[in-house]
Design brief:
This protein has one domain. The longest helix is centred in the first third of the chain and has 12 residues. It is of the alpha+beta class and 171 residues long. The protein is 20% helix and 35% strand. The protein has a five-stranded mixed barrel.
Length: 171
């Protein structure tokens, strides 16, 4: 047994919870959604050998420091989901340090369950600095079903670290 197989088995044994994704036939949709056991859901296309094991993955709380002197970076990131688009599951907000978050977008190639807040994710894709407009910020607040007063209080554009997901594992 090689180290990837061992890591996969350990990860499978350690994960708890259940997924709510409908079952797909991997034979007809090999790179979209696959189910492994009861607690791991894979989304998107594979990057490298597997979506589950990425020896180069960094925690989301290190992404800001890693990106301090870069415009963009292809990187795997893991962390806890703070919020999910409630309208379509097309974006995630992943917790980072000091109250910061990383906005992660699927580019609508796939979507997440809207009830995965609090679960861990491993994301494969790339990070870059973006300016999110006031209109986009308000749209995201609406997607989260925030109150009208909270949405109205959003003023101005915001420079933030964005992550573009090509593949993901929900643990």
């Amino acid at each position: 047994m090689n180290y990837k197989q061992i890591a996969f088995l350990l990860l499978l044994a350690a994960c708890k919870g259940s997924d709510k994704q409908p079952a797909k036939d991997p034979a007809t949709e090999p790179d979209t959604i696959q189910h492994l056991g009861d607690s791991i859901v894979l989304f998107g296309k594979k990057m490298g050998d597997t979506l589950l094991v990425s020896k180069d993955a960094i925690p989301a709380n290190k992404l800001y420091a890693t990106m301090a002197d870069k415009d963009s970076l292809i990187v795997s990131v893991y962390g806890e989901v703070e919020a999910v688009c409630q309208a379509a599951g097309c974006w995630l907000r992943v917790k980072a340090d000091d109250g910061k978050t990383v906005m992660a977008y699927t580019a609508e190639e796939f979507s997440f369950d809207t009830d995965i807040a609090g679960r861990k994710v491993l994301l494969n894709g790339y990070a870059r600095w973006d300016v999110t407009t006031e209109a986009e910020l308000k749209h995201f607040a609406e997607d989260e079903n925030k109150k009208k007063e909270e949405i109205a209080a959003i003023k101005g554009d915001k420079k933030e670290l964005s992550y573009y997901i090509k593949g993901a594992s929900v643990l």
